[in-house]
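job 3f2a | input accepted
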Amino acid sequence: MSSSLSLCSAYFNSPISRVKRYATAIKILLLSFLLLPITTMVKSQTVHWSQSSNKNNTQGTVVWIGSIVQSSNSTFYEGQSTLQRLFLLDIPTDPTGKYKLTFKHLATKGSINAYDFVTGWNNAGGALGGKAISTSNAIDPNCFLNIDNCSQTGQNNDPVFLICGTLDAAPLVYSNAVPSSSYAVPSPGTPNVSSNSNVKARIEDWDNNFSPTGSDGRRITIQSNATVSAANLVMTGYGDDNGDVYAHYELSWTGPTAPGSFSVLVKIGGHIADQLFYGVGKGASNINGGPYHFKVSDLYLGNAPFDSQHTISLGDRDNQLKGADILIPPPPCVIAPQSQSIC
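job 3f2a | predicted structure (343 res):
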């Protein structure tokens, strides 16, 4: 009996037996992975976030920069919109076909308005004949005279440079316009909604009096090298960030479901708050320094709740505008009687 046990023990501890046991364990481990739910694995992204400057060498020629917009490179007035450009490359596809981008802009600093709402590019430049103005005066008609949507994207083997032409030539998929009522909600630290009700009224005034296409001028766009549709823009509310108030947004769309990846170009306009509407001292030019933050936050894949495998951080990338360098449009010229009008 002892001899049999010794033989069993010798075999159990032999190299051949150990190899077989290891092989069996590996098979069991692989089988357990195959039985787990299939998830979309998030890989590294190429993110390019830039904004329009319009006075680099030639007034009216847009140069895309990732730094601050200020008087040395731009001329902007209250009531105009800056252009914001976002490339997201190699987005992993999700079986649900659902994708969501979050972004935010500074709404108020203290009691002073900064960016008050978002617009589309058409009403930042093209649809207004390049004026990009929403006050009573057509200031600086050459503000966005020449725009190359693919300039300043790198060169040669830069992935954004290589794909920009394809994305910029793709069909424009328009979001909805955020209802003006979405802005009439309390901000952190405010006892009532009066200041934000003013934003609601400003949007309605802009839609009715300064946008050739009404509220359609506030629709932002997505272009892609894949088929995308059903773009939906939601202003989710105001949030406090170290004493500053930000307006938060979600842009969702339907995209590809098959395994692989795709890329998008998102075009957003940021409307610069004007004191001709909000009152003297309440416009964007009255904020010192360069705190006009316009930030992209995260990209989500699939349905909520979103775990780490379905959340792509975009690094809170920030485009800034220097408030002190923003110009105030002159008031409308009114001469009475009108027959003696000189302007």
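job 3f2a | Helices lie at 2-12, 15-34, 159-168, 194-209, 275-278.
job 3f2a | closed
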